[in-house]
Amino acid sequence: MNAEKKLLFVLAAVQFSHIIDFMIIMPLGKTIMEEFAISPGQFAWVVSAYAGAALTGNLISTAFIDRFDRRTALLFLFAGFTVGTLGCAFAPTYAWLLVLRSCTGIFGGTLGALVLAIVGDVIPLERRASAMGWVMTAFSAASVVGVPSGIWIASRYGWHAPFVATAIIAAVFWLLASRFVPSLRGHLAEADLALPRVPGKDRNVPASILVDEAVQPIQEVLAPMTGLRKVVDPFVKIFSNANQRAALLFTMSLMLGHFTVIPFIAPYMQINIGFEDDQISLVYLIGGILTVVLLPLFGKLADRYGRMLIFTVASFFALASIYLLTNLDTDSMVIGLLVTSSFFVVASGRNVPATTMITSVVKPENRGSFMSIRQSVNEAALFGSTIVAGFIITEGENGLLVGYEKLGYFTMVMSVLAVFAASRIKAIA
Questions:
Q1: What DSSP string describes 333-395?
Q2: Do 103 and 82 belong together in one domain?
Q3: What is the per-residue pLDDT for 202?
Q4: Together in a domain, 16 and 48
Q5: Which residues contact 245 (CB under 8 A, 6 or more apart)?
Q6: Residue 289 CB neighbour total at 10 angstroms
Q7: Half-sphere exposure of 222 (CA within 13 A, CB side)
Q8: Best exposed site among 48, 102, 113, 406 by fewest CB in 10 Å?
Q9: pTM here?
C-alpha cells in the first residue's frame, strides 16, 4: 500500500470514529432517558448539544486552523475528541452528559472539516472525487456498524459501554494517524508565497519575514487591532468571494435536500408501514452495505465524466427516490427495503461529487478555514431541517405520522436548488 492510500485509509478511519460517535447516541435514547430520568425533550438536547458545539467549534477554528501543520491540528483535535467521548461514558448526571457531549462536539465537528481539507490539499482535483468516495464510505460503515452494535453493546453492558468502545477505537486510530499522517505544511508555504516581495531585498528570504522587519515598530503599536484583523480576515475572505458564497449555498440546500427526511425514516417505516425492530435494522444494514460498496464507484465516475454531470444525474434519481420513500404505502418488506436502500445509495452517492466540488472553490492556504465554515453551515442546516420537519410532521388517527409526503416535496425542492447552486460553482484548485 503506497503512502497516499495509507493516508486515505487513516482519514477514513478518523471520519469513521467521528461519525460513529455522533450516531451512537441515537439508539441509546430510551436507555439514557431511563438512566437519568429525563424527558424526550431533554434527551433531544443531548443530541442538539453535540451539533451546536460542533457549529461553535468550526466558527472558532475558522480564524486560525490554516496557521498550523495539518498533521498537528489533526492529532490535537482527534485526541480531544477521544478524551471527550471517553468522558461521556462516565458522566454522573444529565448536566455533565450535556457538558461532555458539547466538548466532544467542539473537537469532532472541526475534525470532520479538517479531514476533507486534507483530502483537498493532497489529492489533485482530477483524482479527488475517487479519493473522496473512499473517505466518505466511513459514514456508511458507521451506519452499518454503529447503530446495531450500539444497541447490542448497551443491552449487554449498559449505556456506558458504547462510549468506551468508541473511545478505544478512536485511540487505536489516533496511533495509526500519528504513524502514517505526514507533516502537511504545503498550505503554509503557499500562503507565504502569496505575500508580496519587498523591492531591493534578498528574494530568497520569505516575504513574511521581510514584511515583519519593515513594519515591526508599527505592529507593536497596533498589535490589538492586528490580532482582531487576523481573526476577522478569514471570514471576510470567504464571504466576499462569490464563488465561495455559492458553495455555501450549495452546501445548505444539499443538506436540507438530504437530512430533512432522514430522522423520520425509521419512525415512518415502523408506524405507517409496519416494520418490526429487526426489520428496521435491515434498513440501515442493507442501505449501509450498498453505499460502502458503491460510493467509490460514484467517485470514479465523477473523475471520469465530470463532477457536475454525475451530481446532476444522481440528484435526478434522488428526486424519484425521495418521492417513493415519502409516499410509500406497501405491505411488502422487500419493496420497503428496495425504496429505502435506493435513497441511501443515490442520496449518499451525490454527496461524493458534491463534496469534491466544494473543496475545489478555495486555494489550499485558505481551505481549512473555508471547510470549517462549510461544516458550520452543515450543522446549521441540520438544525434547520429538524425545525422544518417538526412543523410539517404531525400525529394523525391511530398514531400514524401525517405530512411525510409534504416533507418529501420540500426536500425535492431543496434538491433542485442544490443543482442550480452547483452550476454556479467554479473550480480553482
A1: HHHHHHHHHHHHHHHHHTHHHHHHHHHTTS-HHHHHHHHHHHHHHHHHHHHHHHHHHHHH-EE
A2: yes
A3: 45
A4: yes
A5: 238, 239
A6: 16
A7: 10
A8: 406
A9: 0.75
